């Protein structure tokens, strides 16, 4: 199964500082080339580290997901005011209301991708 998924990743730390980046602005979505796209992906948090992998989540702790994904992970953490996340949660296109489960730290070499391809 290859749905041609691409994941753009940014790690955030929540702070009590309204001068930090605004999560609502960062998550703006627009149609670009006929596809819904995230248009405000940060450009000042380092060159993304790219690798091939799969979807994640607690159901894939022991075996990789059959869905292939190309990942881009920015190496520097960005600060967000916790109030902007609260604002986004109150009115978001995905109807998200809570955090999702995450995969355990992957230590099985068969489930680890080589960085750079």
What does this protein structure show overall?
With 117 residues, the protein is mainly beta. The protein is built from two helices and seven strands. It has helices spanning 23-26, 82-90; strands spanning 5-9, 12-15, 29-32, 35-38, 49-54, 68-73, 78-81. The model has no long low-confidence stretch (mean pLDDT 87).
Secondary structure topology:
Blueprint: E1 5-9, E2 12-15, H1 23-26, E3 29-32, E4 35-38, E5 49-54, E6 68-73, E7 78-81, H2 82-90
Give a quick account of the main beta sheet: strands, pairing sense, barrel closure. 3 strands, mixed
Average per-residue pLDDT, rounded, comes to 87
Instruction: Sum up the overall morphology in one term.
Output: globular
Strand order of the largest sheet: 1-6-5
Strand content: 25-35%
Tally the helices: 2
Instruction: State the helical fraction.
Output: 10-25%
Secondary-structure content class: mainly beta
Number of strands: 7
Oligomer: single chain
Radius of gyration: 16 Å
Give the N-to-C terminal Cα separation: 18 Å
Low-pLDDT segments = none
């Amino acid at each position: 199964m290859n749905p041609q998924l691409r994941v753009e990743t940014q790690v955030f730390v929540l702070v009590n500082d309204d001068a930090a980046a605004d999560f609502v602005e960062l998550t703006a979505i627009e149609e670009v080339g006929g596809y819904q796209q995230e248009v405000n992906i940060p450009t000042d948090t380092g060159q993304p580290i790219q690798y091939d992998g799969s979807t994640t989540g607690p159901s894939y702790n022991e075996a990789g997901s059959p869905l292939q994904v190309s990942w881009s992970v920015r190496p520097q953490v960005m600060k967000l005011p916790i109030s902007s996340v609260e604002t986004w949660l109150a009115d978001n296109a995905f109807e998200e209301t809570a955090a999702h489960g995450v995969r355990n730290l992957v230590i099985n070499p068969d489930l680890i991708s080589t960085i750079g391809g």
